[in-house]
Design goal:
Blueprint (H helix, E strand, L loop, with lengths): L23 E4 L24 H5 L3 H17 L2 H6 E9 L3 E8 L5 E8 L4 H11 L10 E6 L3 E7 L4 E2 H7 L5 H20 L2 E2 L8 E3 L8 E3 L6 E2 L19 H4 L7 H16 L9 H10 L14 H8 L12 H4 L3 H5 L10 H22 L8 H4 L12 H7 L3 H16 L9
Antiparallel strand pairs: 1-5, 2-3, 3-4, 4-6, 5-6, 7-9, 8-11, 9-10
Length: 432
């Protein structure tokens, strides 16, 4: 359940894009930015993102399979689509969808097309289209056009080729607080824009933050709006239980009405990981993990934090706050001293060795655990879906939260937390 790793380079003008054409649900092609050269395309998707390193190591057998898939999907696709786009490769699979890399026949511009089954994937494309048809921002993925047939929907996106956030950090030889500041500025700008339109992402996590191109100055793109929500007139809060375990906000776990500030909580988790290579809330047992989140129990006591500035820690503390009325909004985050100071208050120490070591260690541990638990159910996708911090296949399930609230011990703990919140304006537990 996610959109393609694709980005339409927005031009100047209105925040929303024009309405549907006669044959398509939606169309709004624009030319690329004058100051940003379009890079060569690589294969990345939100459903099953193939990193640069993995793409470079694809075997000859996989290439042959791609050629076969290319022919197969060219035949199956709507002729209106193939008349306009040349099918290059199958680059992603989802439960009810397939993603192919294509090339526009006239402009030779690379794009990605996500094909969704209209019946089985109805909720997927309706949720994404409701959001993507409204957005046009340099840090948010944008739709190019949509074709509809009787049984399929074809969502055309511009291809993002720079890879996922943490893959990029590991591949770089250097990463400092200043680099982290640049990332968080872009993320917060994107969130501020989305929230101004009444859009809440609800599944913000590292693999949904992509670089537009491999260059050093590439911008970040917020992608994958499969779980997003668009606030309608008169609606103040949401109640649907959804998200990814490690990044879900405590108010969702507590089954309280929530608003767009769940995205800021997730951004705080991402920032914590980006500066240390470790997660603030981490436990293989989901019940214990959720209890950590519900009490905001995290710390800065490990060696990983010795070179991180106090401003960076304060930035995270103001995002990982239990009381939503005390949590920093995206707009407020953009005025925080850590993002504003940049060179003045932030450290220029190279954090790459510590961060990459921790991320790779987690990746290896996850793969080892996956090998043990999946020996009887192997697939050729397991090495992709179980990489470090990758979590597309680990959704928060409403039934598990329901079961959690039936646990007397958990209920007692929740009552205790509510009582404590009544005595304090801010209850986060971040410690230096």
């Amino acid at each position: 359940m996610g959109c393609v790793n694709a980005k339409l380079v927005p031009g100047e003008g209105d925040d929303t894009v024009g309405g549907p054409g006669p044959e398509t649900v939606y169309t709004g092609e624009t030319s690329k930015s004058k100051d940003e050269k379009l890079p060569k395309d690589k294969d990345f998707t939100d459903i099953e993102k193939v990193s640069k390193a993995e793409s470079d190591n694809q075997s000859q057998a996989q290439s042959q399979q791609q050629t076969m898939d290319k022919r197969k999907y060219r035949v199956k696709m709507d002729p209106r689509v193939t008349a306009k786009y040349d099918i290059k490769a199958l680059i992603g699979r989802g439960s009810f969808s397939r993603v192919v890399r294509v090339e526009h026949r006239q402009s030779k511009q690379p794009y990605a097309i996500k094909m969704i089954d209209r019946l089985q994937g109805k909720e997927v494309f309706e949720a994404e289209l409701a959001v993507l048809r409204r957005v046009k921002h340099k840090y948010v993925i944008t739709l190019v056009e949509v074709f509809e047939s009787r049984d399929k929907v074809y969502m055309v996106m511009e291809l993002a080729t720079g890879g996922e956030l943490f893959d990029r950090i590991i591949a770089k030889g250097s990463f400092t607080e200043r680099d982290a500041i640049r990332v968080m500025r872009m993320v917060m700008e994107g969130l501020k824009y989305l929230h101004s339109l009444g859009i809440t992402h609800r599944d913000l996590k590292p693999e949904n933050l992509l670089y537009y191109h491999p260059g050093h100055e590439s911008r970040i793109l917020i992608t994958d709006f499969g779980l997003s929500a668009h606030k309608r007139a008169g609606e103040e809060y949401m109640q649907t239980t959804c998200g990814t375990p490690e990044y879900i906000a405590p108010e969702i776990l507590a089954r309280k009405p929530y608003n767009s500030l769940v995205d800021e909580w997730a951004a705080g988790v991402i920032c914590y990981i980006m500066l240390s290579g470790t997660m603030p809330f981490d436990d293989e047992n989901r019940t214990r993990l959720y209890r950590q989140i519900l009490t905001a129990k995290y710390s800065y006591t490990s060696e990983n934090w010795k070179d991180i500035s106090s401003l960076a820690k304060d930035f995270i503390d103001k995002l990982l706050v239990l009381e939503t009325n005390e949590r920093m909004t995206a707009a407020q985050a953009l005025t925080h001293a850590w993002l504003v100071s940049n060179t003045a208050g932030s450290s220029n120490i190279n954090l790459h060795r510590t961060i990459s070591h921790n991320l790779i260690h987690r990746q290896q541990s996850t793969r080892a655990n996956s090998t043990k638990s999946n020996k009887s159910n192997r697939s050729n996708r397991s090495n992709l879906s179980n990489r470090s911090l990758r979590s597309e296949h680990r959704r928060v399930l409403p039934e598990e939260i329901e079961q959690l609230h039936k646990d007397p011990e958990f209920v007692a703990e929740m009552n205790s937390i509510s009582s404590q919140n009544g005595d304090s304006n801010s209850t986060h537990s971040g410690q230096s």
